[in-house]
């Protein structure tokens, strides 16, 4: 079955760097509301978007320097989650906190770790340097999907759908008929196609200027649990050398919002026509449309799946499903491992128990 839960001890794209500013950004991730902002020094911050006093979203409050003031009763929280002010109270125990989340910013994305902070190893973040690297020009976007994230994971590993869903933009009939190779380990899947001769799809005619048959390669890389790099290379058919070879790197951050809704953070980088701003605008609009088609397909599938839950409709697997099914097994194995270790749902917040203990003590005094 398609997973509708995702591991917490993992890095997820939380935002494009440009999305996080001194203005509050509220975004749900893995079923939790998260408040993002930047300190005066420019560092990104992520706090749970709820005041533990009466659950008021902190994003409805005010930013006072680097601290967040709840808009309901004025409790104030530092970037590390510690409460620094309770109106009418002189001292505040260090244990009174809202949850903060580890972040890592680099190469255009801000990543968030939703699980045990002690396990937040930034070496686990996949390479995505093309987003901001010299010699590349990048278009970006953020879109939303009313379907579970795994549907996009599998969509991006089965590029045979380009021959049908995207035939008028990035696809051609030969793609679905070309054999694939699948490589994988416990955290990574690669699905590759080499097409020695194929027609140049309309999108690539526009962006590369090649209006003839091409030699094309595709590599779809999945980094569990929710990040993809799609590499497309093409050059005119018959070229002996690579002088006219064009490279495009598409990055996909597939971040679960809830069980059945998803954030889609994408970027498309190219190593040609670097200064053509009009072309970058065309890429941005075209890719947004293509991704919209993928989202529409996944939402339709989600509607069917939901009608069968908690059972599951019959499904036929074919040869090109090797990569997608492998990704499904990897995500499930990560979930099984966390459950065996006792990691279930959102992590424990010490402040919640402090609040509960205080409430119980108050109740006892009244009695």
Automatic annotation (TrEMBL):
Organism for this UniProt entry: Streptomyces fuscichromogenes
Region (Disordered): 339-367
Keywords for the protein's UniProt record, in alphabetical order: 2Fe-2S, Iron, Iron-sulfur, Metal-binding, Monooxygenase, Oxidoreductase
InterPro entries assigned to the protein according to its UniProt record, in alphabetical order: Cholesterol_7-desaturase (IPR050584), Rieske_2Fe-2S (IPR017941), Rieske_2Fe-2S_sf (IPR036922), VanA_C_cat (IPR044043)
One GO molecular-function entry: 2 iron, 2 sulfur cluster binding
Domain Rieske: 11-112
Protein name listed in UniProt: Vanillate monooxygenase
């Amino acid at each position: 079955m398609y997973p509708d839960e995702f591991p917490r001890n993992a890095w997820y794209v939380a935002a494009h760097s440009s999305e996080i500013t001194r203005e509050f950004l509220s975004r749900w991730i893995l079923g939790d509301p998260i408040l993002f902002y930047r300190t005066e020094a420019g560092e990104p911050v992520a706090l749970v978007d709820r005041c533990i006093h009466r659950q008021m979203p902190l994003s409805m409050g005010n930013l006072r320097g680097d601290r967040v003031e709840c808009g309901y009763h004025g409790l104030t929280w530092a970037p590390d989650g510690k409460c620094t002010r309770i109106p009418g109270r002189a001292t505040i125990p260090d244990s009174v906190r809202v949850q903060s989340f580890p972040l890592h910013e680099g190469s255009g994305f801000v990543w968030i770790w939703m699980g045990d902070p002690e396990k937040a190893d930034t070496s686990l973040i996949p390479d995505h340097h093309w987003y901001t690297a010299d010699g590349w020009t990048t278009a970006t976007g953020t879109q939303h999907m009313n379907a579970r994230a795994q549907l996009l994971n599998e969509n991006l590993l089965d590029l045979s759908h380009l021959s049908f869903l995207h035939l008028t933009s990035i696809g051609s009939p030969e793609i679905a008929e070309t054999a694939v190779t699948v490589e994988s380990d416990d955290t990574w899947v690669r699905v590759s196609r080499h097409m020695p001769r194929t027609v140049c799809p309309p999108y690539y005619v526009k962006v590369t200027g090649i209006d003839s048959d091409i030699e094309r390669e595709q590599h779809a890389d999945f980094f569990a649990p929710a990040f993809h790099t799609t590499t497309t290379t093409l050059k005119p058919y018959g070229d002996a050398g690579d002088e006219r070879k064009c490279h495009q790197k598409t990055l996909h951050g597939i971040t679960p919002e809830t069980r059945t809704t998803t954030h889609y953070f994408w970027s498309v980088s190219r190593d040609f026509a670097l200064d053509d701003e009009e072309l970058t605008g065309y890429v941005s609009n075209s890719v947004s449309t293509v991704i919209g088609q993928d989202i529409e397909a996944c939402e339709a599938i989600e509607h069917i799946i939901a009608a069968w839950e908690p059972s599951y409709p019959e499904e036929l697997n074919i040869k090109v499903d090797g990569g997608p099914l492998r990704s499904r097994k990897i995500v499930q194995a990560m979930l099984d491992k966390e459950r065996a270790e006792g990691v279930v749902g959102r992590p424990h917040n010490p402040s919640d128990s402090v609040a509960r203990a205080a409430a119980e003590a108050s109740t006892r005094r009244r009695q």
